């Protein structure tokens, strides 16, 4: 009894194999698949349904307007220039020897990447709020 339940196949080793099972040659001479016409018809019908639905058009227009307003109202502050980032930082040889992982080599390594920390601002808000005392 075979423990892996494999059936043994008798192979003819005398037969020479001169090619692959799949020669990797496309059967169709052009770049289109055989069912491309049906696929395009389905896509065009879906597009017609989307274009005729007023809700979808309204949602797309609202989304576009929202993105435009966001772009216009967004404040851009680019205070750090690219050339400024490559300037070397003078630092102590002793600190560089003792704590090389803590020493920045150029200005680009000390630029504050994230200026807004949600958790710290929430903690500050909680600390700043005073309990309301009721007087009678």
Automatic annotation (TrEMBL):
One Gene Ontology BP term is: cilium organization
Top-level taxon: Eukaryota
Kindly name one Pfam family recorded for this protein: CCDC32
- What protein name is recorded for this chain? Uncharacterized protein
Question: What phylogenetic lineage does the species belong to?
Answer: Eukaryota, Metazoa, Ecdysozoa, Arthropoda, Hexapoda
